[in-house]
Amino acid sequence: MMSRVFGMRERDGVAETLLFFASKRSEKGKGYFRIDWHSLNLETAEISEALTTMPPKARSGASAVALGNRVYLLGGQCERMDPTCPDGKINGKNFHSHDYVFCFDCEHPDRGWKQAPCMLFPLLRPVAVAAKGKIYAFKGSGLGHFAEVFDVSGTDWEPLSVPPDLNIDTSRVTSPVLFDPPRSRILVHFRSGNGPNPLYAYHVDDESWECLDETFGTTWSEATTLVDGVLYCLTDPDEETAACLLSDRRCCLQAYDVVEKEWLPVKWLSKFSVWVPHRCGLYHLGKGHFCFAWYASALGVFEYRKNQCV
Q1: Are residues 213 and 233 part of one domain?
Q2: Whole-number pLDDT of residue 103
Q3: Are 138 and 130 in contact (CB under 8 A)?
Q4: Cβ atoms within 10 Å, residue 203
Q5: Distance between CA 16 and CA 248 in Å, rounded?
Q6: Within 13 Å of residue 253, how many CA atoms lie on the same side as its CB?
Q7: How far apart are CA 279 and CA 222, in angstroms?
Q8: The pLDDT of residue 40
Q9: In sequence order, which residues have a C-beta less than 8 Å from that of residue 292 and are 6 or more positions away?
Q10: What residues does 33 pair with on adjacent strands?
Q11: Do both 16 and 142 map to the same domain?
């Protein structure tokens, strides 16, 4: 089983429930596969029964994004010789991605999941974000192009322009990409083997790119979130443990002001000594509350840690 946190439900301005989906498969060769959605109560640590199940065409390695009251699931991948491949590609030698998009209207759950217009290219784990009525999907893993955008009021996906002076062949988009509503822009971090790893902003209103920090560096991970103009990033883990110990003795959480374009000092107000995997999610729950959440595959359990920043 593989799990991925998707979104939150709030009460009194603070999120109390995380929504996530889990892909499940039977024993190899049994031809069974499905994706279920669940909720995790952050107060009781209880995980709900399946809230809804995706259509059979939904694949592992898909990405989810919310826009208004609708949830969209993008892309995904089939393994080699997967008997459940919706396109019947069971004789290939390699893994292959799909371009499927599915939509769920939370105001009308009785209607179930509906297939939406497919993306231009098949994508595995597209780095996706919703902004002002549109969904932006950036290339994740596998073959494909740079990025594409879908206006949910329309019927077709369109390619997204490439940032000027950036070599897309040697750079990749780092997950996640973040929408900055007050400034109507999407923050996109690029990483390359030997480059400066810049931070860009895509202005959604005039469809233009701006380089915010040409030498931002590698301080960006799955555990990155934006709150009131400040980026909070869990830095690269210790290579041997692939995890970070969060405490006042070894602070792995960094803060960057995207308005002033400068790094800010970070200090833990109380000890929070716990090992957190690098590939976890960092979520702002509201009113200074943050949460790290991840699926511990070795233990087969979903784990999370909460803390408050002042």
Answers
A1: no
A2: 93
A3: no
A4: 14
A5: 26
A6: 30
A7: 6
A8: 83
A9: 223, 234, 246, 276, 280, 281, 282, 283, 304, 305
A10: 25
A11: yes
Which residues, given as ranges, of the chain have pLDDT below 50? 1-3, 29, 239-240, 249
**What distance in Å separates the CA atoms of residue 38 and residue 48, rounded to the nearest whole number?**
6
Counting every residue written for the chain, the total comes to 310
Provide the residue range defining the domain that includes 206.
162-218
The CA distances from residue 90 to 35, 61, 76, 85, 95, in Å, are 20, 18, 16, 7, 10
Residue partners of 161: CB distance under 8 A and separation at least 6: 207, 209
pLDDT of residue 236: 61
Taking the C-alpha atoms of residue 153 and residue 37, their distance in angstroms, rounded to an integer, is 26
Q: Are residues 103 and 8 in the same domain?
A: yes
Closest CA to 177 of 146, 136, 217: 136
Is there a single domain that holds both residue 234 and residue 214?
no
Whether residues 142 and 176 share a domain: the answer is no
Q: Round to whole Å and give the CA distance between 87 and 78.
A: 10
What's the structural domain count of the chain? Answer: 3
| Whole-structure pTM value | 0.86
Lookup: tokens for 181 = 């509503």
pLDDT recorded at residue 50:
83
Clarify whether residues 94 and 200 are in a common domain.
no
What tens digit of pLDDT does each residue of 26-77 get?
555 455 567 888 888 888 888 888 888 888 888 888 899 989 888 999 998 8
